[in-house]
Amino acid sequence: MTHQIRAIGMFVAVFGLIAITGQTSSWNVALGIINMGLISAIMALGVNMQWGYAGLFNIGVMGFVALGGLGAVIVSMPPVNEAWAAGGLRVLLALVVGAGTIIGAIMLWKRMDHGKARGLAIVVLLVAGFFLFRYIFDPAVDAIEAVNPAGTGYLGGLGLPILFAWPVGGVLAAGAAWIVGKTALGLRSDYLAIATLGIAEIIIAVLKNEDWLSRGVKNVVGVPRSPVPFEIDLQNMAGFVTTMRDWGFDPVIASSIVVKLCYATLFTAVLLLLIWASQMALNSPWGRMMRAIRDNEVAAEAMGKDVTGRHLQIFILGSAICGLAGAMMVTLDGQLTPGSYQPLRFTFLVWVMVIVGGSGNNWGAVLGGFLIWFLWVQVEPIGLWLMDTITAGMADGSALKAHLLESAAHMRLLTMGLILLLVLRFSPRGLIPER
Amino acid sequence: MDPINAIVALLNFVIIPATAYGAQLALGALGVTLIYGILRFSNFAHGDTMAFGAMCTILVTWLFQGWGLSLGVLPTALLALPFGIAGTALLLIGTDRAVYRFYRKQKAAPVILVIVSMGVMFIMNGLVRFIIGVDDQNFLDGERFIISARTFREMTGLQEGLAFKTSQGLTIVTAVMVVAALFWFLNRTRTGKSMRAFSDNEDLALLSGINPEKVVTYTWIIVAGLATIAGVLYGLDKSFKPFTYFQLLLPIFASAIVGGLGSPLGAIAGGFVIAFSEITVTYAFKKVLGYLAPGGWEPDSLVQLLSTDYKFAVSFGILIIVLLFKPTGLFKGKSV
Amino acid sequence: MSKNAWQDNRGNKDRTITNPQGQGKEFPIEGRGKAVRVEGESPFLIGEAMTGGYGTGADILHDCTVAVEKGEIAVIVGPNGAGKSTAMKAVFGMLNLKSGSVRLDGEDITALSPQDRVAKGMAFVPQTSNVFVSLTVEENLEMGAFLRQDDIRPTMAQVYDLFPILKDKRRQAAGELSGGQRQQVAVGRALMTQPKVLMLDEPTAGVSPIVMDELFDRIIEVARAGITILMVEQNARQALDIADKGYVLVQGANAYTDTGKALLADPEVRRTFLGG
Lengths: 435, 336, 276
Hints:
The structure holds 3 protein chains of 3 kinds.
Chain A: H1 2-24, H2 27-54, H3 61-76, H4 81-111, H5 116-146, H6 162-184, H7 192-209, H8 211-214, E1 220-221, H9 231-236, H10 238-247, H11 251-283, H12 285-295, H13 297-302, H14 307-333, E2 335-336, H15 343-357, H16 362-391, H17 399-407, H18 411-426
Helix pairs in contact in A: 1-2, 1-16, 2-11, 2-14, 2-15, 2-16, 3-6, 3-7, 3-14, 3-15, 4-5, 6-7, 6-14, 11-12, 15-16, 15-18, 16-18
Chain B: H1 3-38, H2 46-67, H3 77-105, H4 110-132, E1 145-147, H5 149-156, E2 164-165, H6 166-188, H7 190-200, H8 202-207, H9 212-237, H10 242-247, H11 249-259, H12 264-282, H13 286-292, H14 311-325
Antiparallel strand pairs in B: 1-2
Chain C: E1 36-37, E2 45-52, E3 61-68, E4 73-77, H1 84-92, E5 97-104, E6 107-108, H2 114-119, E7 122-125, H3 137-144, H4 153-162, H5 164-168, H6 179-191, E8 197-201, H7 209-224, E9 228-232, H8 236-242, E10 245-250, E11 253-258, H9 260-265, H10 267-273
Parallel strand pairs in C: 4-9, 4-10, 7-8, 8-9
Antiparallel strand pairs in C: 1-6, 2-3, 2-5, 5-6, 10-11
Helix pairs in contact in C: 3-6
């Protein structure tokens, strides 16, 4: 009981902090924090599943989040017909050839007998496949990227509703997770950490460089957000403007708040659904088995449990949730900006959320998501204020003062590290510990 | 057919840069592998330790430059290096006392230490950005080239130039010296042997009267040296930018793992394997093949296997291949 | 879930980031205290009325006493789980004593850390993981002499005289040796400190009978050289045969204490512990 009271108290405190921000600066900022907090909470749920339930060390969260974002683009952006005509099918063919080569190599590995012949055959297949792939792929890419490079220069998407994109983002991430998990999760030991670290960097490299797919660093902007209205449309609605005026609000600010509230509702629904599902899963026989494996793998294995299989399952599930969050984030931002995916922000910060919130506890992860996101946003102004106070006595124009003021922005990383270390040291099970 | 020019081009664009980069990765990987062997976790803060060491050295270099101190043709940074190492060693030992020691006393699971090192990574990353900012810093002075491309062309009359940068020469020479010193230390001195003994079996080391705290302190000092040297050499060779150092984490981990975690020899081999494959796979061989191909058969395309943006993919690919076929790495380390 | 949150690795087994191999498991006492001279008659080494257990766990030893006179061999025997090894570790400072004391050569050393006890002339050979597998035989011996500042070569020559096979294998990694040879390295490593007391935890566990006889012979040889020996043994009959003093422990407490010969002759001990 005290456990629950403590958890509720923590949530009240965090939302209290956000409410104070709303009161003192603006509700727009506060709602912004809540919306990204919701998305962060979902990412944290995903990582918590992997680390908290199964001890899997995924440090490629960024990659799965970015893949989810790509999913949003692929599903919801209108297709660029010209680009499809220029080389769409050819690109698809190239991808099929590429995938076929790899599958072929794996088949050879499994079917042929151990020996030099097998190695040689695989190398020959891979080299030939690679050149064939590039032969088909390169001209198609050039053709696609030549189509109105300033405006599109990519294939576009399927033009479907954005809500449909969220699960697709999850599926894309799950696919990547399957490949990673298949190779990296072993029986006696695994190398998931380095594998996820690598795959995340590769996914970002692909998004940054494959302009035909994601427009690369030119970014995809104007991602549709259909159930949620655009601010400008609200402002053009006579009824909305008069109602807001009647209630005593500025219609421009009100429109932005209404939009954020719409998102908040949608995201909350998703989050609650996920928490419900994962709590159910955790208390089901499946969840009990997961915990049994985590706490005593040897015994679980002796009882005939397929440990690697379960680990693969949960790794895929957790990554899919991260992908879902990534798609939601692109929807919220209305754009995909591959250049903005940084491991500190999208991998390690999520880890801080999980550890601070409470590994193995879904509510803890959610709390961590909100709290850490709030701090991530607010530490910068606080740091600036702190530096202002410290430097108040210094002469204007002094180099140190200028440097300190300029550096205030970097306080954020310092603070995150400090919080992680403090929580790990003094409350190692997190703010809301697993029972 | 012009094999001599082809060889020169290959040396100039692949072999020399890859050797220098490989040496830098090897020094970085040695630090990672030492911590893995003795403190038993992969230190995520290693890239940022390198950045911190390089930053300390840069600050002292600037001070020396302000005083007009210089080493003539060699970069002033060499003079500042010991101070950089000292500063980094102080930071690392301070971190150990304030953070890691507690967990050591608790006999914490190594994976918890990995998470702790994440926190340290955030702090160091923030610290470096706080002190020196996020921008590129160039601190190379002295003679830029041992041989410049033009001098080489004039000397040999070849069409292709061969540039050998001072920073590359320095990297290779320093790396050889550092590695030799490290191996001598680990295999020939009592303290070095006690570090290996501690890595092998902590409890037995304790029974032999080896003081764990001393072993750990020595380790951090050596790691500070390795990381600072690697960071400074990388900064001289390319340029200093905190974020780049953070990103070096992947190739450095890859080097250490490919070589076999916990094996110093493996770390060096891994560094070169990763560096050579990264550069070979992302280099456009048009020029080299152009010299080699018989007249009229020169390639039209760049003959580049992968764009340079995918260099991480190469380190990662090599890593996966090695792990799939030889889970303990090239030199039998302790991993997997 | 383990009690200590920092020791909970959640079943993670990622060897690219963690290296549990060789990690210490023992919680030696901090040992900030000093050795204190004590007056009066006392055996050369004695762990007297020791009570305690590992960490915050339940007590394993209950008022347990083991002692050995200078140059003699004392053997601790008893059924599995009797706390034999624990008693040994307690004497060496590897666990916190709630009460009781350890005295060596007229000094109370209860407050000393294991390292300080090594410096005082105690050496301990654990039952398992008792050699540095990645170090050569010679390096293993050198590590045994880590605390010594004088010339260690004569001692090393003595060890090689005692275990001639080790001299041939001195450049080989200890991990490549056979079980019996490893035990020789382990004992050799302990002898390198020139200890006054050698403590052996089941030195013959897992070696063949022939090697076992050989090891017992060497241990007697060591004792004849004036080194006091305290050891735990599974092979109670053989061990008591060479023991000057025997301790039978049951559930962490002394059950029988006498000379080795007397214990072997005691029908009660024979019936309960020696299988008739």
